[in-house]
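[SOLVED] Need 3D model of a four-part complex

Original post:
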Amino acid sequence: MQEIPEPSKRRLVLLSRLLTDRAVKNITSVQIESLTGWSANLVRKDISLLGVKCGASNGYKVQELKEALDKALGTGSEKQKCCIVGLGRMGQVLLDNAELEESAFKIVAGFDSNVNRTEVLRSVFPLHPTTMLESVIKEEGISWAILTVNSEEAQELATRLAVCGIKGIVNYTPCILSLQKEVAIENVCLLTALETLVAMKKDMAAVF
Amino acid sequence: MQEIPEPSKRRLVLLSRLLTDRAVKNITSVQIESLTGWSANLVRKDISLLGVKCGASNGYKVQELKEALDKALGTGSEKQKCCIVGLGRMGQVLLDNAELEESAFKIVAGFDSNVNRTEVLRSVFPLHPTTMLESVIKEEGISWAILTVNSEEAQELATRLAVCGIKGIVNYTPCILSLQKEVAIENVCLLTALETLVAMKKDMAAVF
DNA sequence: ATTTGTGAACAGTTTCACAGCG
DNA sequence: CGCTGTGAAACTGTTCACAAAT
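Solution:
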């Protein structure tokens, strides 16, 4: 009994996505290789970590594999509650984002320090002033946060979210958030992503 | 002479960010550890890969370290040209994104298959119909793309970008893009980020 | 016959321990 | 003498090769 490696988890999340809406009944590790670029060997190893055997001479059964993935990834069961912190331009786009419609996630609250916004903006879930952050997160049992505030507020609000017991933050700000390692962070800011692309493509020879 | 490991590159990108606008002259690996969660040993190893020696008994010289990072990461020199593909709600938010203002990146073109949008929307750089994608990218010498189209168009446009010789794509769509591995991809879609957070926090025990 | 599943070998990454330097 | 810089050790993740399964 061992823990699934982090790189494998990241690939398995994407594999689950790859399998959704796929019309075929079966898929082989070689087909997955050609779709993702991960070696067929690696794909098989990753899947074997799930502890299910849903493949044979004609490849994996897509349906069974998808179910095993969702179960292992925690994406299958009931809806995970999220909140949006920061209702500026980016936050507003994510507010009524159809993307999450058929997903395992549900946004149940929005916050902004500008009361004008929380009163004027319309959404299917309630919007609150940031002063209510702690109480609403506790009452609603929110586990995940989407951070779309401006840079000046980012660390302070991240800290408050962490104190609330939030399990993870999707960070749209360019700030490096300093939090205890129990809080997972995914940095999705455009600038960071672009810089990472450049670093990946650059042949950075270590000088040795 | 060896290549810098990918995990190190990703950390170094974030380290560079951490150092910007930092008022202090010096910073130690232990301070970086407390800000980032990476062990001080790892921080020193990462920095040593740059081949510069900018630290001593009172820590690293922030200025020198920052310069070495930007040089190694390719983020220091002249502006990198980017384009936005897809001018829906997300694309529009990124259009006049102040975030890139003082960065190494410059958006020089936007594309959308809806000519209404390319004609009505205002921005400091020109907007073109998607039919112009190949010619504009070639003429402008654009290296990086920000993909904000809807899911249906994502793979087709990614393929066209790859054919143009684009070096990397920041993927805002929930699609898994299939491209030759010369094209770097950073997935920043909200759904993927949330699913990754859940997977990271879940104690996924491999069944052995 | 073809493809999975997996232990063992290999490669990559991180940690450790301590020499060297300001 | 505290902190960096770095080989060597320990650990983690990937590839390989082939037995098992259908």
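Edit: Residues 5-8, 39, 41-42, 45, 53, 55-58 of chain A lie near DNA strand D (CB under 10 Å from a C1').
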